[in-house]
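WARN  no MSA supplied for this record, continuing single-sequence
INFO  ligand: iron/sulfur cluster
INFO  echoing inputs
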Amino acid sequence: MKYVFGPVSSKRLGQSLGVDLLPPKSCTWNCVYCQLGKTMKFVTERQEFFAREEILDEIRQALTVNKGLDWITFVGSGETMLYKGIGWLIEEVKKLTSIPVAVITNGSLFYLPEVRAELLQADAVLPSLNAGSEALYTKIDRPAAGLTFSQHVEGLVAFRREYKGRLWIEVMLLGGVNDSDEALHDLAVVLKEINPDMVHLVLPTRPAPEQKILLPSDERIERAIAILSEVTTVVHPLKGNMDLRSAPDLLKAVTAIISRHPVQQRELQTAIADCFSGDNVKAMEVMQEMLATCRFKLVEHNGEPYWVMHT
Ligand code: SF4
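INFO  complex generated
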């Protein structure tokens, strides 16, 4: 499949079928922690990158083979809301199934009324907010020219006013960057103004190709939870894991996921072993065969081996 991947399992979204609407990498930001690597050329113009009917057709097919899904999640190889027509896709998916729809986005285009309008039918929207000040926003998210911190916050505030679904803000906590008390208090002030239903604190557990990113210490994570909990509900999700059991072609399914983000070797091994009734020896054999295709390579991040695509 070209657009649909997974299902991927995670604490926050359970079994989620991913739908990628963008050619890699199309983004309005160039985050220091981005798993997709550097944004070589910013994209800020919204487009229908692929025919919407083609995407809907794949979703329709995937729904016939994947049972027990908790969410259908629109997430892009870049900024999801760059896809013009996502609102139509959400509405059409809702005609096909009662499975709720989530959208993962950086939120940078929420200042545009037409972007906010396209999201009103989604059941959950998960925009990013990594900083409570212009300086940290610029340092972490490194936006395209013309996109400012105040515009980002105003867009989120306006969306909250209009949107009746679940607004779950994702905060990426980076060791030594936005985990100081000062940065967290700034963030809390902005979060209070936005008034989300929840904050998902996420950690840079996957390798970023561009530069070394540090995990925050346990003490800093606890501190972040304490400070942000003063203004909203904070969840610190466990790392997701994959469910490949319904994949008709294991190599294709693994390629589809790893081409979107690095996968921890342990997580991959568990997911493959689950396809063979928990047989770890078989899983290792399959992984050796996959490595022999030269499509993947191993990189180390925070002392853990990860699978990434061979470039
Ligand atoms: S918004 Fe997402 S895709 Fe874009 S640069 Fe940041 S992490 Fe990467």
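The chain has a mean pLDDT of 91.
INFO  checksum written, moving to next record
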